[in-house]
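S1.2 Input.
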Amino acid sequence: MTQLSTSALAHYWSAQEIVTNLIVFMNLVGALLLGFVVGYERSYHGRAAGMRTYGLVCVASCAVTVICGYPEAWFGGSELLRTGGTLPAPDPTRVIQGIVTGVGFLGAGVIMKEGLNISGLTTAASIWAASVIGVLVGIGFYGAAILLTALSAACMLYVSKLEGRLPSRHAIFVDLRFQPGTEPDEGAVRQALRNLGYEVANGSFTLKSEGGAQEWSFVAVALGRDLGRPLAEMPAGLRTLPGLDGFKLAHARN
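S1.3 Output.
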């Protein structure tokens, strides 16, 4: 029996292989849902990483872990890789380790940080998930790879809409520039934001002084899903701050 014979290729879609792929898929679904739970807590508090990011990372991590428990199903059954029954089937786990590590550095390259605003986290997580899909195909878990692809695509397409329906507190990046010689009043800044339906996120303050002019940067989180004013309505409320020379507002996105 050669590796390209019909009987050899049929091993990849044998009843036992399909059962193994279904077990792997059930693990992936569970990991995805649990990742959503953790991600929702972050999303609710307006953090950069939300349900999609946590879900993708959790499901990809589960995939590369669970396949290690079924070595007899690798490459359609390890017996296909034996030569005369004398050579053991190779262990792909070291290759997998190098892949997921290397792709992690690739994903880090798409994460962008501007002030306190972070973007690209979901893209980075999806790149990592795509590498795991490639691992599943390479190891012969075709059914699990197809199902993981469907889960990942659905996660990126529809979970953001689900997040929009759930109670949440969206976040915005705020940069305030004051006129030289002005001593900003933190209480006035916080009150102006509360009037707009926001509060300053704890531990997000960054202060900068140049040429006698102070610049304050921080993340503001909405008091509730429908309580925060739209970005276009915020300038009128911020202009009431004494000594304000300019400002910059941006959605904190992932």
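S1.4 Remarks. The radius of gyration is 25 Å.
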